[in-house]
Amino acid sequence: MKNLLLSACIIFTASLIWSQKAPRIISLEELITIEKPSLETGLLKDEGITIWSDDFSDENTWTIDNSGQAADYGWNINAVSDGWYSTNGINSTSGGNYAELVNGDPFEETQALDVVYTLTTSAPIDVIALAGTNQVTLEFEQFGARFNDLQQILYSTDGITFTPIGDNLDKPVLSASGGSAYANPDLKQINLGTLLTPTNQPIWLQFSWTTNYPGSAENPNVWVTYGWYIDDVRLVTNPGNDLEVTDTFWGTEGLNYFQIPITQVAPIDFEAVLFNGGVTAQTNVALNAEVNGGVFTGSSDPITIGSLGIDTIGLSTQFTPDAIGNYTVVQSITADSLDDVPSNNEIANISFSVVDYIYARDNNDVGGSTSNGTDGFEAGNLFDIWADQTLKGIDVRIPGGTNGVTAGTEFFVKIYSLDTEGEFIYENESDPVLVTQQMLNTSQTIELLFPTDLFANTTYLAVVGSYEEGFRVSTAGASDPQTSFFLDLADNTWYYQTGTPFVRLNFDPTIGLQENSSSFKVGNVFPNPVDGEATLKVFMNNAQQMSLTITDLSGRIVYSENKTLQQGENNIVLDSKNLNSGIYTVLLNSRLNTISRKMVVK
Description:
By secondary structure, the protein is mainly β.
């Protein structure tokens, strides 16, 4: 899967304007509408020596550029919270004054557009003279939340040109469909040892706020901010021993699953990316893992990571589950030296299950949803198949509630294969399904038009979608880039998304045992909108003659023909070259019933 995804990314970049879709621009209607959550405090242990600090008690230590805006916009320094979201400001260690970023009230529609707000140290800081080394870390306490904004930290050696050294893009977007505010306070740490030299010039520090979507700068939604609060900024010398886990990976050939059918079990890898933020080289560094209290134990080959070095380590032996059940993986990092800051190399436990039929990429912890506003879309996940198996259904979860899907909305599921050139190839789909109230906020199994054989060593994309506005699919957990995807039907372009859609393969062989009374099943027009030719997939219980009719919005027949369709799968080619742009209805008639499908011609 790893190699296949790499080639797919390169090909799609050239042919489909491949780019990241998530997080999309959040609408004002999705702004948080519930009371702020109770926030836990807790800072990382500080093992260094503070060489410079500021608690904003003297506002002249900082220079503010508020992009020409008047009071109550941009940065301010005092002990009063001016923003609409937080009334109490930041619970910093020092208390008193703090820096606050505001940009109007979105509910009053007073946010300023086309602004960049900066907060910069008034004088440069001679780090090398103060510390005697370039091995220092920038620390500060912060509070706030992200919406569509870009919160950056920068530095400069001339006070004119500033280089980004950190941001808050790792924080989740907070909206009515999920996410959270930062801990109050949250400690942000940026190791400067990799940026500064032993003879470095003095530096200026800067905090900058603007939109994360400059291409949509005229949209007021991209200028909404909950506020960003900063206090207790410090430069601290790096500790002697400080291994930090900067990233982790687990899964099979690039994909991890939280439910695995026993028929699709394959060896699982565990890896960690480590950064040595300390002054001393770390020897005999290893990743260790234990499954279910000792059913499996494994370690990586030991390595040495030099000061400010970064390396990836993985278990030397893969773990392959051998039975249905729940599995918990406990991982740890060991080295010869006692770590001065152990809290930043802890790895969260991993839990997954081996089950009878369900193949799930989502972690079942629903925290949001994917939508495309008023435009149709498809969203879903990649799945690697390791043994031939027949698929009859796809499970999805559709959110309800205030920001959920309205009963009566029509949707469908589809399955694509991924070919060797990285293209998604349509395989099968369901009949259109109408959302009922009983479907909302629960997992639903949607039957495919006909059983589809999935083949070993092939990657498939399972999606749920709709041509109607207001449709959503729940998300649960996070996906690595290029592993969960979103098709924007407005521009017929595939994007990747980092929230994992609740879309699962269901291999239960009993699905569809109660046959539909209809003598035939019809898929949706694909692709849709149509520019040239499209295909209508029809599955016949028995061979028979059918009548195909296409009508425009007024009901006028623009095309008609009789066709003899064979038992099994049939592909009817629809040619739109003689049709004007617009919406049409495709009708397929037998002697007993009629099925219609919508077709949009570009």
